[in-house]
Each structure stands twice: as structure tokens, then as C-alpha cells.
Design goal:
By secondary structure, the protein is of the alpha+beta class. The protein has 2 domains: 31 residues; 172 residues, Glutaredoxin, CATH 3.40.30. The strands form 2 sheets. Strands 1-9-8-4-5-6-2-3 form an 8-stranded mixed beta sheet. It has a two-stranded antiparallel ribbon with strand order 7-10. A hairpin with a 4-residue loop joins strand 8 and strand 9.
């Protein structure tokens, strides 16, 4: 009888342990950020003009092209003209670019707020360039690289994530691009079609913390 009680107790402990492991695993998965189909929370971040910008400011937008990028990463620099072109092409169709610098300026001085202002002026940015001060927004999204793209679409539920990943299939060399993942996704939304490729691997520099 005593042996039976001990075995029963061990079984309960094992079951509870397994449940705890599964629960911890789920929490860990949730902490990795948004997946396609999730609703992205709004944010309020400082733009290079000193004003706070949030997604809620864009009442007439159909969605957003949220791009985590920076001044110093060679991959981000190689994509600057592409990002400007995307904004010029799609913001009047309802999908403006919202660029966010996720890097910690103390770890990467070239990505300070002042340097962001200089870079935006030099390149003639046509979109907000926001500083993720305190580095709170990029973890919520799950961004790991610069550049890292999140295409959002306004729905009755909120801003739904429709595409995550790279701008196209050649982050280093625009002349060699064969497939424009982000443009294809935006065009599908504009045409009321299903997005064929909803997630790709972002190629770029790690975010500096």
C-alpha cells in the first residue's frame, strides 16, 4: 500500500512537471513576437522631428509597412533606396512606410537620435524614422535583424500582421533581385487576393542591445 502511494505521488509529480514544461514552452514561444495573423499593438515613438508618432495617427491608412532598420548596418544602407521607393509607391495607396531604429545608441553610437536626423536628411527620407527608445517595440514584434519587415493590414480586429521577413530576395544587391516579397504582398492586399508568400527569412545585421 505504501509503495502504491509513493508511485501515485511520483506519477502526479511527473504530470505536473510535464505540464509546467509545456506551459513554459508556450510562454517562450509567445515572447518571440508576432506571427502572421496576429494583431499588432499600437505604439508611440519619437520621430526625427521630435514629434511622437503612432499608427493611430494614420486614420486613412489601409495598413502599414513597418521596417526595423538603422544607419549603420550595411544591409540597411543597401536597402535605403528601396525603402524610399516603397514609401513613394505605396503610401498614397494606403500603405505608408514606418521605419524604426531598434538599436541601442550606447551600444551603437552611429545609431543615435542625432545621427538618425542627419541620415534622414542626407537621404531625403519620405517617411517617419522613429527611435525605439528603451528598446521596447522590436521585442514585441519579434524583430531580430535590420532590416526586418512587418506588413500590417487594418481590420475590424486591429492591425493584422500579413507578412514578415525580407523586402526581397537579395538584401545586398538590388540589381540582382528576382522576387520582391514585400511588394508582392502589398499588391495582393490591394487586389483583394491571398498573399502567396507570407513569411521569409530577414537577412541583415543583428539588433544591437
Amino acid at each position: 500500500m505504501k509503495t502504491f502511494k509513493v508511485l501515485t505521488l511520483l506519477a502526479v509529480v511527473l504530470i505536473l512537471s510535464a505540464f509546467a514544461v509545456n506551459t513554459i514552452g508556450k510562454v517562450g514561444e509567445g515572447s518571440k513576437g508576432y506571427n502572421v495573423g496576429d494583431i499588432a499593438a499600437d505604439f508611440s515613438l519619437k520621430n526625427i522631428d521630435g514629434e511622437q508618432v503612432s499608427l493611430n495617427d494614420y486614420k486613412d491608412a489601409k495598413g502599414f509597412v513597418v521596417i526595423f532598420t538603422c544607419n549603420t548596418c550595411p544591409f540597411s544602407v543597401a536597402n535605403e533606396n528601396r525603402i524610399i521607393a516603397l514609401d513613394l509607391k505605396y503610401k498614397n495607396q494606403g500603405y505608408p512606410v514606418i521605419a524604426i531604429n531598434p538599436n541601442n545608441p550606447e551600444a551603437q553610437p552611429g545609431d543615435s537620435f542625432e545621427k538618425m536626423q542627419v541620415r534622414a536628411k542626407e537621404k531625403g527620407y519620405t517617411f517617419p524614422y522613429l527611435l525605439d527608445e528603451g528598446q521596447k517595440i522590436y521585442p514585441a514584434y519579434g524583430a531580430t535583424k535590420t532590416p526586418h519587415v512587418y506588413l500590417l493590414h487594418k481590420t475590424a480586429r486591429g492591425n493584422e500582421v500579413k507578412y514578415i521577413g525580407a523586402i526581397d530576395d537579395n538584401s545586398r544587391n538590388e540589381a540582382a533581385v528576382k522576387e520582391r516579397f514585400l511588394e508582392n504582398a502589398i499588391n495582393a492586399l490591394l487586389e483583394g487576393k491571398e498573399i502567396e508568400v507570407t513569411e521569409t527569412r530577414a537577412i541583415g545585421c543583428s539588433i544591437k542591445v
